[in-house]
Amino acid sequence: MNRSSLVLYVFFLLLCSIAAAAGMALCQNQFLFSPGHESITAAFSQFKGTIVGDWNHYGRLFIEWQPALFRAIFFWTIIGLPLVFLIHFIAIGPKDFSHERGEVFYFSSFTRLVHWVAAIFFSLLVLTGLAVVFGKTFGGGSLIRSLRYVHVVSALVFTVDAAVLFLIWVRDMFPAPYDVKWLLILGGYLSKAKRPVPAGRFNAGQKAWFWLSTIGGGFMAWTGYQMFSFGVEAEALRLAAIIHNFLGAALVGFFIIHLYMSLFAIKGSLRSMITGFKPREEVEIMHSRYKIH
Ligand code: HEM
Question: What CATH number corresponds to the domain at position 282?
Fold first, then answer.
């Protein structure tokens, strides 16, 4: 990819994000400057009141779940999963493929650029999202409020970028019959043996991550938008908050899995997202149904 297409892509992301930010600001301003909300603090109190509501329907669910259940789910996701992977790393360890039989070109430079933009802004979303969930533990206040804005801006960029990522990869991500077998043997990751694994260009786990991060990411943007803009009635707002929390936890979990798989489960696999190439041996074994061109 040449420099001008890179600049064009960044410009495109910027434009879309500014447009989305303007839309959001408009919605929020409508709320903030409606009668009875002189300050941001007053608006936030109203927001909290709207979410907690009168103990009916989703309001009741939300207030029961918010302090204990959501925090527990997030806590065990960020502690439990890395522990499981640590055990896997110690007991089984990474697979190691030789580069001697050549390499296969897997990811174009445009794909890599779009992927890394997603990686940066999604990482920001996870970190700032967790900071908001555990806000009290970090002392709350203006730091957490600022991080919430970083969360919103990152969401804008990620949503646009994830839509591009979706278009690039979608045709390789539809389920295939052999994906069931891949799931049953957990992708062959329970042993170090180099036996061919049933997977096409992408395996069942990668496909699941793709759909969750793009379509799930879209739902996160939509529910997040409702929470930020106050553009819907109270019941819908509560439901949005519940979905945002549960889906958010699933996304954080899959993100941790993705990090382990792409950084530790196969030696040097990060390189493929930097150079675009994978060792031929790795493709033949881990993606045995993929026809190498
Ligand atoms: C810092 C964070 C991230 C790192 C280090 C990372 C790394 C990688 C690597 C090395 C690969 C190639 C794996 C292979 O085929 O062997 C990959 C693929 C991929 N990444 Fe990421 N990634 C990150 C974040 C993300 C995010 C946020 C998304 C969501 C939009 C994402 C979506 C994908 C998808 C769909 C693939 C192709 C299928 C797969 O390998 O899972 N990645 N990533």
Answer: 1.20.950.20
